[in-house]
Design a protein that fits this description.
The protein is of the alpha/beta class. It contains seven helices and twelve strands. It has a domain of about 180 residues: Rossmann fold (3-Layer(aba) Sandwich), CATH 3.40.50. Helix 3 packs across helix 4 and helix 4 crosses helix 5. The longest helix has 24 residues. It starts with 15 loop residues before the first strand and ends with a strand.
């Protein structure tokens, strides 16, 4: 009787979130996915990617950078939703949609709430209601990305800045962690929505310095190389559903190989060390 429920497992593009501190290379990593055969469409709400668009050759860009005008921002939110509808209704050949950045997009959603409720600022609605309403708009946006993924096989990639927050869990001592720079409801919803959350970070090298008196002190320096954390550790809020190693190079092609290996049934348990200990001679 249960045979009617049997079906093949369907591979879909993974819903990807890329987070990290300012200047860590989030946009560079995401936009390196662009090729002539697999073009990228960028929803550009963060005015800082022109150099990356130039280097990667991306030219499908919807600009919606927030301003100080609530009505203008609300119109930009509407234009973003219209762009999703256009992508859904046409055979564009686009393989990925990059939102850079979702924390700036959140500002547009909040402005849309203000216009819809005839208020000047989210706080005017009282009791945090405006942020709850804005969260429902972000949910609709995520549903739109899901629709593109399911019907057009377009991969959604969200770029987000981070903030540091103290995490309190009943089974652990409080600790500080990087989390998405979003209202708490949007942060939780996007974390649940994502298949993969990658945290971009610089490689840290720990050097042992001879301080005299038979004592060596450790000093942490950044090498300039970038890595991706793929799971929650070291104070970062990352995750993945594809058995990725805890740390991988910040290289799009290497990342794709690991995702393909998962679907091909190959193990992806090789690790890339984040920290190296070097003795200064």
């Amino acid at each position: 009787m249960l045979d009617k429920y049997k079906r093949q497992v369907m591979r879909k593009p993974e819903k990807l979130v890329i987070e990290g501190e300012t200047g860590a290379g989030k946009t560079t990593f995401a936009c390196s996915a662009h090729t002539k055969k697999e073009p990228v469409f960028v929803i550009n709400s963060d005015d800082g990617g022109e150099n990356v668009f130039h280097k990667t050759g991306i030219n499908l860009i919807h600009d919606c950078i927030p301003t100080g005008d609530i009505k203008e921002n609300a119109d930009k939110w509407d234009s973003v939703m219209e762009a999703l509808r256009e992508l859904a209704s046409e055979n564009t050949g686009v393989k990925r949609v990059i939102i850079d950045s979702v924390d700036k997009l959140e500002l547009l959603a909040q402005s849309k709430v203000c216009v819809d409720h005839s208020i000047k600022a989210p706080e005017d609605l009282g009791y945090g209601k405006a942020y709850v309403y804005a969260s429902s708009y972000i949910q609709k946006f995520l549903s739109g990305l899901n629709y593109l993924r399911d019907t057009q096989n377009i991969q959604p990639i969200l770029i987000c800045h981070t903030q540091i927050r103290t995490i309190n869990k009943p089974t652990m001592e409080p600790y500080d962690s990087f989390i998405l720079k979003l209202h708490k409801s949007n942060s939780a919803n996007i974390t649940e929505w994502a298949d993969v959350i990658l945290f971009v970070a610089f490689e840290t090298i720990v050097k042992k310095i001879d301080s005299g008196f038979n004592r060596k002190d450790s000093r942490a320096i950044q090498s300039g190389n970038r890595f991706l954390y793929t799971s929650g550790s070291m104070g970062v809020d990352a995750k993945n559903r594809f058995d990725l190693p805890p740390e991988i190079p910040a290289d799009w092609n290497e990342y794709r190989k690991l995702i393909d290996s998962f679907w091909d049934g190959k193990k992806t348990n090789s690790e890339t060390p984040k920290k190296k200990e070097l003795d200064e001679l």
